[in-house]
């Protein structure tokens, strides 16, 4: 272990720590606030979050997570992986939000599921819950099994289910009830949302009223960004005036270095010696297959067809005698040796082929089929004249194998491929182009057999050993990392120490969120994120340990943080800087324009470089698009606010400064029926939009505080 040296160095301290721990155990937990009592060191550190004023402690959350995990693992028949556990934590948290916030809303509105309704949801046929139905649906066929469902319901009614299965069933029913209540709630919201005739008329006018205009446009981009200096005080002032536009968020930024654990020349030499030793053992073994299985890092089939062998091994077998040990051969980081023990005959043939598919569904018109066949025949003609198969496949084949040059790999004559295709391949006596285009239900195939059919199987005992860093190598690399880490107490010292080491590079992880488990290319790095979000980890602090993440040792130093409850201008620096910079540009442009007179062309000429004069025709308020400015609601709104023939004073738009002249206004004709426009507004604002807004309102009112990142 990489920590062995550290443990030895601190063994004297450990004796004292153990002695103190025993004394504290004898004194008891009351001193420290155990069992919920107020003690000397009791704190709020166990609080995982807060929902609508309800405090959620770690034990309560973990208990729910344990139940959910047990149910999931029972249904899946396996243990959960770390990524799945993270997803389950999020599901449990969302469920707690639902339980605390939504249920209160349901009760206020009198929403409930009656016993008769629940019975129909759980075992009925007319209104069976999709959640319940899913439990009795075969995942392979997608077919719902009514008989199995009724059998289960009867067992549950007779109290014949095992305790764990009963608990899982109760939870599933609860989920079905919650889903039904949520459906009722959303239906109620949708029914309460309506569009007035006035709203529909406004929508109609926005689409049907048209305007023509000419305008002078000076874009912000006409002034170079680097000529505008934005101060920190300007950023802070802007944020204080536009707080509603910028929502705070929790994040951490940190610099880090990576010590990658790589095998050394000594590790490679040691593995080579091991391989030679295994070669002797394999040669002498009476049961080579068992010996190989016992000593190999990975298992491969003992019997393999020629199509399943690597080119190097296949070439070696061509001259090998039975009983010979072949190798070692290196492939990537794996060394392999083989003992050849003869051949056997398979009942099936195998072959390898590539194809070029020109699609034409069997239901396609004859003209489509004829065109596809002609194209396939043309490709076959090119191949017969010497064209490269893989190149034509990448350019023409209409299935996923195109990226591999049409290669389909090895397959057997057992129905893996559609019948016409399989018959064409295995009718070939060796490798080469199938002489004719082959038609299947998918279309027309041009086929090249790359390895001819064979039913010969080679009996080969294989030992594969992967080259990995030894424990001594890992410990040596860890010690380098620990030495650097221990020499730094601040970010500045960390940067200086890394700079002295010419082999290290400081990498940056910017604005990493609390729930993250990865940053940049580093995967499964949850431990680093947890450290960064720990209350004791301040900006400028270097990690208190070397993190071991896969084959990497990582040292980090926090460089910045953002807090949800106290947003700062620096948290949104790029966005606010752009806003403030444009405000300064707008002031400069307005000042230079002054109170312009004359034609727009004369004003543009007087202004100089950057000023444009353009014309817009048939624009509307709903989707108004100007030529160079693009979508600029301020400018479009100004055009419609002017009377025909009138000109505006210079004003600031979204994308620059404008002077506009409205040359024509075409009012929409009156209509009697606004139903179409009511529906458009409803689709935009109603339905799921209402549900979404209600959900956001509920969550905002709940004032949710999520501290899970400090625990998991």
TrEMBL record:
Membrane topology (UniProt): Single-pass type II membrane protein
Source organism superkingdom: Bacteria
SUPFAM superfamilies (UniProt xref): FKBP-like, Triger factor/SurA peptide-binding domain-like
Entry annotated with the keyword Cell inner membrane: yes
Transmembrane domains' residue ranges: 12-33
Compartment annotation: Cell inner membrane
Molecular function as annotated in GO: peptidyl-prolyl cis-trans isomerase activity
Main location: membrane
Keywords: Cell inner membrane, Cell membrane, Chaperone, Isomerase, Membrane, Rotamase, Transmembrane, Transmembrane helix
GO CC annotation terms, alphabetical: plasma membrane
Extent of the signal sequence: none
Domain PpiC, chain residue ranges per copy: 348-451
Pfam families for this protein: Rotamase_3 (PF13616), SurA_N_2 (PF13623)
Family of this protein: Belongs to the PpiD chaperone family.
PANTHER family for the chain: PEPTIDYL-PROLYL CIS-TRANS ISOMERASE D, PERIPLASMIC CHAPERONE PPID
Record-given protein name: Periplasmic chaperone PpiD
